[in-house]
Amino acid sequence: MNGKALPVIVGALAVILITLSSPTINLSPSRSRLVIATTTSTVDSGLLEYLKPYFDSRFNADMTWLYLGTGQAIAVASRGDADILLIHDRVREDAFVNSGSGVHRVTVMYNDFVVIGPKSDPAGIKGCTNVTVAFKKIAEAGEQGSAAFVSRGDKSGTNALELRMWAGADVSPRGKPWYIETGQGMSPTIRVSNEKQAYTVSDRGTWGKLKSKLGDTLGLQILVEGDAALLNPYGLINLNPTRYPNINSDLAEKFFLFMISDEGQGLIERFEVSGQQLFFPVFGKPESIGLPSEKAEVQFWVQKLREEGMKPPSWIQSDSQVPSDRV
Amino acid sequence: MPGWEELFYGVFRALQLIFSGDPEIARITFLSLRVSGAATLLGGIIGIPLGATIALRSFRGKTIVISMINTLMGLPPVLVGLIFYILLSSTGPLGFLHLIYTPEAMMLAQLTMVIPIVAGVVITSTSGIDVGLREAAISLGADALQEVRILLWESRLGLLTALVVGFGAAISEVGAIMIVGGNLLGYTRALTTSIVLLTNQGEFVEAIALGIILLALAFLVNVVLTCLQMKSRSGLFAQTRSTKINRKVEV
């Protein structure tokens, strides 16, 4: 009896082991993998998934990404566990480059943050053009127990912006009963706000995508937008290949060039969710949205683009490299 | 009620995904199976002898060791993930292995969780075996190795349970593989990490569908293991204890 059963078990285990050890995952080992450390917004909005087939086929690559907040993305990249950074917190972006971990940084695209909240708007901030004033009103309503605010609380770029807004409004919200910290990404945080009928700050991209997904179950709306303080520029940073010899720096440079090229910037411009454009290409013309000039970097990369036979975006004049004023 | 709709469509979508043979879903499902299956098998290979040894030997500090194993049975996956991330990170102490964000790293992290679970269940199940059996085996001239084999054989139902529990913990775990695997599309994206991502993105129907595939997978594995258990109880493996001992000792 025993003699019969054992071979069955051993056979079954052998089959399982062989199946498990077969090299199934990397079906196309010839394709080189790129790991982008990025913020939740570029993933949740669907932008990277949209760009992937264009990049993959052009460079015979396998573009993947780590779905992180800006804080974690920087921590992971500074350990050499990603090939390139696409994030949105200028202060930490510059610190990363200044520390020698990053080499080149350009502003590649932007959108803006919006303050969203319940349709009933208990703090009365709808249509407010000054976000600092709106935050003060939310804090006042919060103290009276009629409103709540949901924060990412995860050291992400959005969290950093939100904390700057509170500092500007001279409010220290942490620990207050009306101030909720989720410690999660943008979409989960919006969903918590929805359940709590509370205010929060979101990038327009994630908000637009989630709204198109959740539809009527999302009882929130945009209340404050358009203040220059709500600008959300995304930085593209390549890593120091000397410090991180194991990263795929060749492919990372290809991705950098792809994103700032006429093709990449055009793709970003044409990316829409529910008929709405979510990201605005801005390589080479950060001045147009009130950011400091990046002339040296732009000249360096335009030169690189030409060496690689790629076209710079149309708003960069072919001879002078001075960004033209585009409407 | 939109909630019921999502659950209903989730089930429907799960069936659709299973029968459409979507390559991405197949790859995700297979990765989960491969990582957790390998972790369970290796966990069994290491955990069963470990548990049996601890259960059978008397040594100083045995209570402490068993308490430690029982504690580790509840090891938080996210902590395991973080520790392995720091170890395997490119600039970490084991960075030279280039394992970060690979299925192998995911398997290692799950293995770390499965070993104490298997060992713990094995300790419990082998401790329950009749002391008389051991004494009989020894009195019939069994050496130490034969004694262990007999005891393992007698506790085979417990061993299968240990593997079932270990596999269940591994396949349903998300905290560790999210950190060490990175949830890279087409490479380290598993069922549980996909569910987290889809939930974050508000794709509830797809998330439910993957959850149902995960459950179905766990169910299938359990059916196979339970069949083995039932068979071993009802005839295929059944033998009287004495003939068993005699045979083993004679060998």
Would you give an account of this structure?
The complex is a heterodimer of chains A (327) and B (251). Chain A is globular. In chain A, strands 1, 2, 3, 4, 7, 8, 9 and 12 form an eight-stranded mixed sheet that branches. A two-stranded parallel ribbon of chain A has the order 5-6. Chain A has a two-stranded antiparallel sheet with strand order 10-11. In chain A, a hairpin with a 2-residue loop joins strand 10 (272-273) and strand 11. In chain A, helix 10 (249-260) crosses helix 11 (262-270). With 327 residues, chain A is an alpha/beta fold. Chain A folds into two domains: 32-111 and 232-307, D-Maltodextrin-Binding Protein, domain 2, CATH 3.40.190.10; 112-230, 3-Layer(aba) Sandwich (D-Maltodextrin-Binding Protein, domain 2). Chain A is built from twelve helices and twelve strands. Chain A has helices at 2-21, 40-44, 47-59, 70-77, 90-98, 131-143, 157-168, 186-196, 204-214, 249-260, 262-270, 295-307; strands spanning 32-38, 61-67, 84-87, 102-118, 149-151, 179-181, 200-203, 220-224, 231-239, 272-273, 276-277, 280-281. Chain B has one domain: MetI-like fold. Chain B is mostly helical and 251 residues long. Chain B is globular, with a radius of gyration of 21 Å. Classes of the chains: A alpha/beta (327), B mainly alpha (251). Chains A and B meet through helix 1, helix 2, strand 2, helix 8 and helix 9 of A and helix 2, helix 10 and helix 11 of B.
What would a concise description of this structure say?
By secondary structure, chain A is of the alpha/beta class.
